[in-house]
Amino acid sequence: MKFTTFLTALFIIAAGCTETVEQEVTETTFEHSELVATVMPVGDSGVSGSVTFTESEDGVAIQGDFEGLEPGNHGFHIHQYGDCRADDGTSAGGHFNPAGNNHGAPTDMERHMGDLGNIEANEEGSANVDYTDATVTLEQILGRGIIIHAGEDDLESQPTGAAGSRVACGVIGIAQN
To answer: Where do the domains of the chain lie, and which CATH numbers do they carry?
Structure first.
């Protein structure tokens, strides 16, 4: 009997010591409709420019102007990290690929989110980009890197499209409205 009384008392004490913790869960919304990256030369490439990413009805509008490129096509990608500190641009990591898909063209149903295809530089070394991408989301690219490559992305080779070295790097940030 004493043992049962002891266990009952112990149970009452233990029950009185427990605390119910309630947490309020708040849902946040992404408050930015436009992001921007200023791209700077990697090494002595001389490549520079800027690109904006703007929320649109059909996805994200990607618009940019670049200069200092060799004439021809150049791979254009969002990379994992917004880190341009390495002399060769490799600190930006690989293509941003949250879904784990194979590399592909911007028009492919399955591809890296960072696969933006190619930009084409004219004889003066200028290039622009202006299209809407249904795969890219502003929330996921904020703070990531944008890279321009020395060569053309073949849109097939795994994992990066064989676009060669990096000639420009930028970090995607919040645009001033």
So the answer is: 34-174 (2.60.40.200)
95 is catalytic: yes
Q: Which of 115, 133, 144, 153 is catalytic?
A: 115
Please write the tens of the pLDDT for every residue from 19-45.
555 666 556 677 889 999 999 999 999
Enter the pTM of the model: 0.81
| Range ranked top by mean pLDDT from 21-25, 78-82, 99-103 | 78-82
Q: Which two tokens stand for residue 157?
A: 């080779």
Output the 3-class SS for the chain.
CHHHHHHHHHHHHHHHHCCCCCCCCCCCCCCCCEEEEEEEECCCCCCEEEEEEEEECCEEEEEEEEECCCCEEEEEEEECCCCCCCCCCHHHCCECCCCCCCCCCCCCCCCCCCEEEEEEECCCCCEEEEEEECCCCHHHHCCCEEEEECCCCCCCCCCCCCCCCEEEEEECEECCC
**85 catalytically annotated:** no
